[in-house]
Amino acid sequence: MPQLLTALVEAGFDRLATVFADRPKFDDPVAGFCDLALAYRGVARANPHLFDLMFGLSNPGGYRADQWASTPEGAGGATRRSSYFDRAYEPLVRYARRAIAQGHLRDGEPEAIAAQLWSFSDGFVVLELAGHFAPFADPLREVLGPLATNLVVGLGDDPGHAAAVMRSALTQGGG
After folding, report:
1. What is the CA radius of gyration of the chain?
2. How far apart are CA 40 and CA 79, in angstroms?
3. Phi–psi pair at 78, nearest 5 degrees
4. Percent of the chain having pLDDT more than 90?
5. Dihedral of CA 139/173/36/41: which sign?
6. How far apart are CA 94 and CA 148, in angstroms?
7. For residue 74, is it within any domain?
8. 73 located within any domain
9. Using one digit for the tens of pLDDT, what is the confidence trace for 59-82?
10. Range of 168's domain?
11. Is 23 part of a structural domain of the chain?
């Protein structure tokens, strides 16, 4: 059973990476972040049970997400992510590098910025799938848009630019 579940998780991340790879490429990396967040949401909403399994939100048959990561020799217990996760994660790292290079975000470690961007998307999606945004008439515009704007502004983007990019993303493809 664990091997079957691992294969499902790998297939889920492979699907997510394919969706990200098929997205339009943006000259503006902040627009790229927004687009990937909306695509991530779409994948999760289309496959909520697989999403739960991919991120360890459900533990069927004794499967645990930490079994999926590997521990390199001499790493002192630190785990390394799966190559399947890394393939899905890489577009965020690329956009983070470009956002820093273009001056949208202040200097920082692109990997850490990508982790923050993934975390905001994931947090929103988990809460939305659990029904916690039911009181909101339009959770994308009332929660996700402001959250994304606040995050990239906190990372150094111009507030006007960040808000305009998110409004555009929600109008064109998100909501």
Report:
1. 17
2. 24
3. -70, 140
4. 70
5. positive
6. 18
7. no
8. no
9. 655 545 554 444 455 555 545 677
10. 2-68+79-174
11. yes
